[in-house]
Specification:
- The chain is an alpha+beta fold.
- It folds into 3 domains: about 45 residues, Helicase, Ruva Protein, domain 3 (Orthogonal Bundle); about 90 residues, Tetrahydropterin Synthase, Chain A (2-Layer Sandwich), CATH 3.30.479; about 40 residues, Orthogonal Bundle (GTP Cyclohydrolase I, Chain A, domain 1), CATH 1.10.286.
- Helices cover about 55% and strands about 15% of the residues.
- The chain has 8 helices and 5 strands.
- The strands form 2 sheets. A 3-stranded antiparallel β-sheet has the order 1-2-5. Strands 3-4 form a two-stranded antiparallel sheet.
- Helix 5 runs antiparallel to helix 8.
- It is globular.
């Protein structure tokens, strides 16, 4: 059921430990796709516990889009310089730069949005329904729904990943946390576009 070949294949696909791979294959009766899903779910759950650990190492990396009209400068942090030098970490930094260049987020997480900015957005949405006759509680639900779209557009972690729309950028980061065993976070970024104020 969990042959050595399957265990090795699963390990290379997920970066999980041998015993974790063996147990996941046993649990799924040798179904490698289900085993991958189980390991990803467990890894993401573990990454949530690591989120409070300090991140004082990492890289500052840059990306200039072909043609030189868009550029990104990103600081990605982790716990140790060992992880900062791994291919997984460097690749994540590159993917995040591409995401920022393509999707122009303004903040890392929704918690980073200034309260004044949020209130301004809510006010705009409320004004759209002024005099519509809709009850106040319905308008507030609509405003909350519109805020979710706002987060998706302007918060890096809430955006769908440009290479897989079913996955949020936050999930991409959590997957690398699960693989490296360290807390990883985007500290800050700047996106430049030629001619932009």
């Amino acid at each position: 059921m969990e042959s050595k070949e399957l265990i090795v294949k699963l390990r290379s696909m997920t970066g999980a430990g041998i015993m974790d791979c063996k147990n996941a294959l046993k649990e799924t009766g040798g179904d490698i796709e289900k085993a991958v899903r189980i390991l990803r779910e467990k890894g993401i759950a573990k990454s949530a516990r690591k989120a409070t650990r300090p991140t004082n190492e990492g890289v500052i990396t840059s990306y200039i889009h072909p043609g030189g009209r868009v550029g990104v400068l990103l600081e990605l942090n982790c716990e140790t310089d060992f992880v900062a030098r791994t291919d997984e970490f460097k690749n994540l930094a590159k993917e995040l730069c591409l995401q920022i260049a393509a999707m122009s987020p303004r903040w890392v997480k929704k918690e980073d949005i200034p309260e004044s900015e949020l209130e301004k957005e809510k006010e705009i949405y409320r004004k759209q329904f002024e005099g519509s006759g809709k009850p106040e509680h319905i308008i507030e639900k609509i405003v909350e729904g519109k805020l979710k779209d706002f987060y998706k557009n302007f918060c890096l972690y809430e955006q769908p990943w440009i290479k897989d729309e079913k996955k949020k950028v936050e999930e991409l980061v959590k997957e690398v946390i699960a693989k490296t065993g360290e807390n990883i976070r985007v500290h800050r970024f700047v996106r430049f576009e030629l001619g932009e104020e």
